[in-house]
Amino acid sequence: MSYLNQITSPTLLLDEKICRHNLQKMAEKAKRHQMKLVPHFKTAQSHQVGKWAKEYGITEITVSSIKMAEYFCGHGWENIHIAFPFNPLETKKLNELAKNQSLSVQLINVEVTEKLAKELEYPVGFFIEIDAGYGRTGVEVTDFGLMEAIMRAAKSSDKLIFKGFYLHAGHTYYEPDKKAVYEQTKAALSMLKNKYRTEYPGLVTRTGDTPGCSVMEDFGDIDEMGPGNFVFYDIMQVNLGSCSMEDVAVALAVPVVDIKKDRKEILVHGGGVHLAKDVLTEPDGSKNFGEVVYLGENGWTIPLQRSYLKSISQEHGIIKASDELLARVKVGDVLGILPIHSCMTADCMGSYLTLDGEVIDHVEQNTKN
């Protein structure tokens, strides 16, 4: 049965071929630069996508929460890194998972480090997260006192093992000069590696943003990359120059419920509870919540004339429709929306439908069930 015949309500479609191509391309890039690819699975959050990733030599993954780490435990990963400043209230759960799975966490202060050093029952690795200009979280790159205090606190236990430094250059999402951002990132991580590798000869450095990892060709002596969004990409990444629209691997299928030809608007069942509310601004100041594509038996095609989702509420979406779209669509049809932010859309939807009609798992689906 065609995947199209299975759609009666908003459904997140996943094109396996595009997803695999994105995985292969990033894996080849990491290999070309002699780096390890440790993708961030906050985007896909799926065992099936993990199986595809393993086919391209990926053996370790990154996650953003202990709940996500628990979901991926026991599925053959050499290590699972939780890339969020560790929440000390989850120490008991960390101990439970570390009994059977190699894990690492992210530390940014002495208090949490001391708690883990006292309470860990099984070995857990840790990265010190570095802030080199993004400003979201992390130890400031020149705050050696805090870094060394974290290292000293960890040494009081044989269960807490220093792995290296993690730097998420998230300002590549809003700084147009990504090369300048990466010069800063490379310099920061190289300086820290040179400063501490005598004491910790096995330490590694890792960076992890999709815009930088997609476009940069000079990573200096950074050891590992951990981008996440690249597995699906999205319209934000297209807008940033990370990829083309043809590289976006997910589309939200939305039923058409009304058409206002005089206003050039199409009402669809698909809103904030499906797409989240990430938005881009059009040149005329209007809002864009996703790009319209045509769905067919073999996937989706990009229209010659643009149409986009101009507004959303909880369940409603209103498309600003081109003449081309108005001429071919009718009530009861299903359109595709390429999301602005695929990570949030996937999290909202909680599962995927492939073009072969197969339902693909997601962390949220597993939790709800």
Beta-strand content estimate: 25-35%
Overall spatial form: elongated
Distance between the termini: 25 Å
User: Over all CA atoms, what is the radius of gyration?
Assistant: 22 Å
Structural class assignment:
alpha/beta
Domain unit count: 2
Family: Belongs to the DSD1 family.
EC number: 5.1.1.1
Pfam families: Ala_racemase_N (PF01168), D-ser_dehydrat (PF14031)
Enzyme class: isomerase
Structure report:
The chain folds into two domains: 3-12 and 244-368, D-serine dehydratase-like domain (Lyase, Ornithine Decarboxylase, Chain A, domain 1), CATH 2.40.37; 33-232, Alanine racemase (TIM Barrel, Alpha-Beta Barrel). 32% of the residues lie in helices and 26% in strands. The chain has helices at residues 16-32, 47-54, 66-72, 91-98, 110-119, 144-155, 178-196, 210-215, 235-240, 272-275, 323-328, 342-349, 363-368; strands spanning 11-14, 36-37, 60-63, 79-85, 103-107, 124-131, 139-140, 160-167, 204-207, 224-225, 250-260, 265-269, 280-281, 287-288, 290-296, 299-301, 308-312, 316-320, 334-339, 352-354, 359-360. The relative contact order is 0.15.
SSE topology:
Elements: E1 11-14, H1 16-32, E2 36-37, H2 47-54, E3 60-63, H3 66-72, E4 79-85, H4 91-98, E5 103-107, H5 110-119, E6 124-131, E7 139-140, H6 144-155, E8 160-167, H7 178-196, E9 204-207, H8 210-215, E10 224-225, H9 235-240, E11 250-260, E12 265-269, H10 272-275, E13 280-281, E14 287-288, E15 290-296, E16 299-301, E17 308-312, E18 316-320, H11 323-328, E19 334-339, H12 342-349, E20 352-354, E21 359-360, H13 363-368
Parallel strand pairs: 1-20, 2-10, 3-4, 4-5, 5-6, 6-7, 6-8, 8-9, 9-10
Antiparallel strand pairs: 1-11, 11-12, 11-19, 12-18, 13-14, 15-16, 15-19, 17-18, 20-21
Helix pairs in contact: 5-6
GO molecular function: alanine racemase activity
EC number: 5.1.1.1
Family: Belongs to the DSD1 family.
